[in-house]
Amino acid sequence: MYLGLDLGTSGVKALLIDDDQKVIGSGHGTLDVSRPHPGWSEQDPAHWIEACEAAIAELKASHPKELAAVKGIGLSGQMHGATLLDQSDKVLRPCILWNDTRSHVEAAALDADPRFRKLTGNIVFPGFTAPKLAWVKEHEARIFAAVAKVLLPKDYLRLWLTGEHISEMSDSAGTSWLDVGKRRWAPELLAATSLDENHMPSLVEGTAKAGGLRGELASKWGVAAGIPVAGGAGDNAASACGMGTVGAGHAFVSLGTSGVLFAANASYLPNPESAVHTFCHALPDTWHQMGVILSATDSLNWLSEITGKSAGDLTGELGDTLKAPTGVSFLPYLSGERTPHNDSAIRGSFTGLAHQSSRAVLTQAVLEGVAFAFRDSLEALKTAGTTLSRVTAIGGGSRSRYWLKAIATALQLPVDIPADGDFGAAFGAARLGLIAATGADPLAVCTAPATDATIEPEARLGGAFADAYQRYRALYPAIRAVTA
Questions:
Q1: Which residue numbers are catalytic?
Q2: CA torsion sign, 48 to 53 to 56 to 58?
Q3: Which residues are CB-contacts of 216 (< 8 A; sequence separation ≥ 6)?
Q4: Can you tell me whether residue 245 is helix, strand or coil?
Q5: Rounded to 5 degrees, what angle do the CA atoms 432, 242, 390 make?
Q6: The model's pTM
Q7: Are the C-beta atoms of 432 and 74 separated by less than 8 Å?
Q8: pLDDT tens digits along 106-135
Q9: What is the spatial distance between Cα 396 and Cα 167, in angstroms, rounded to a whole number?
Q10: What is the CA radius of gyration of the chain?
Q11: pLDDT tens, 295-311?
Q12: Cα(241)–Cα(282) distance, rounded to whole angstroms?
């Protein structure tokens, strides 16, 4: 058996697979996000451990014999979080999360230093880790002075699991401190934020062993002590391992809290001006590009809270047949946007509202707005040298066929729906745990699932969606001056 642990924003998932990669069982632990000020987003790392313990306890209660047979563990997690530790590994402050935008001033200052884009292949986004440390130095100087180690969220879990300060390439690529082409820390970038390599964890590939399970936890869980914990991956790279999106030209669209258009690459293809992320993949000598939108299902969840209707009820009101855009447009910039605007201050909007704009019209506009945000990412990927012929849909929002029809038509690409199964980040993490424990060929393990159905673009609405996309594109510059 092999265990995948995925530390998400809203919870921890523990997934158990066997030698044939069949999912045996899973457990969950829930998490909340603290937002003490506008633009802030934090979590207490102690809650991650509590949620992981809850997930393992649920798994042990349902599958004790199978859990006892675990031979390898893989980790996945939300990226970019700044977990600050002192010399004794005590947490100094709540972790500043990926969707926290407080460090936009510091991010702009670092991005103005040409070394950052040259070495990392990316814009320095406010959500990345380096500007968060610059913010802490400026606003919490006593805490900054006490920092001995900076860990990403999943690597704090690894510290708890193994006692080791270790990270891997895919997650570390999102810090703005990694030389992404050479897959190593960049001392000059660390120095630009008053840090050095001693503040960083050591680095391995995601498929490599990165510590062994501590005896105390092994005894508590009923598993063997010292079993290998794989380097693992950031959540999107782990999902790609779970989806088999590891070869050049393979791509997926993820409809989660945030939205991701992810493409695997066989070489390093940076183009930071497009606001596309270019990161190391979890597999050696592999990279990936992705466009990121900050509020995907979060946009629908926001409308759900406003209307008092569940997300499923809202999409259910639209029926199964894709409708032409109504003229009401929605910009899903509820917490700023990454690709293609790199704008932490922009905010969302409805435009074109009229007396007849019903709840269903607003829902339709939200789904279309997110679809058009993915189209923005597709266009950005093209400018970065990546052309896609189809995508696979994953994430909670992909349960809505209407939404997938809108995305297929907005992208003008077929959207594949995988056969029933769990192919997300926890599954990818379990696969990496299997590889680290057995030495199996990563490409032989990280295969794509069977396709259950394919949603083709709606030819009859291609022109209407193209027109609506042009309206959508015109809105950002029109509202930028009055919303930021």
A1: 235
A2: negative
A3: none
A4: coil
A5: 140
A6: 0.88
A7: yes
A8: 999 999 999 999 999 999 998 999 999 999
A9: 28
A10: 21
A11: 999 999 999 999 999 99
A12: 8
